[in-house]
Fold this protein.
Amino acid sequence: MTETIRYTADVVALTPDGNVLLIERDWPPYEGAWALPGGHVDSGESSREAAARELAEETGVHVTADDLREIGTWDQPGRDPRGRYSTDAYLAVIPVGTPIAAGDDARTARWWPLDNLPGQLAFDHADILRAATAPTP
């Protein structure tokens, strides 16, 4: 039996003063939970392009694909209750005071201080956020 693997991209959008942009999900799974902006990679699109597009669609924050720095790939079985998903995660540094507006699939978009995050993030987004904010050797 062949397993279907879905391809997504997520963005850790950070401000230089230590805030991260999260969305409140407006659909299952994890409806009502906070998550990183992200979504499916469309046909003919790179994951980096998808990450920039999803960030704009879900939060109103616009960056170019070249503004994104790759963090890594998360593809552990079971990371999404809908089935097998592989996500490429990217980091974007966003200027302090950048306006945000929830859109497309997000109930709310909000800047959260890294030292005061919501109790639990959707999926494995806490792991992605930890990797993005780990000190570089």
User: Anything to note?
Assistant: The CA atoms of residues 2 and 84 lie 11 Å apart. The two ends are 43 Å apart (CA to CA). The beta strands are 5-14, 19-25, 34-35, 38-40, 69-74, 84-93, 106-113.
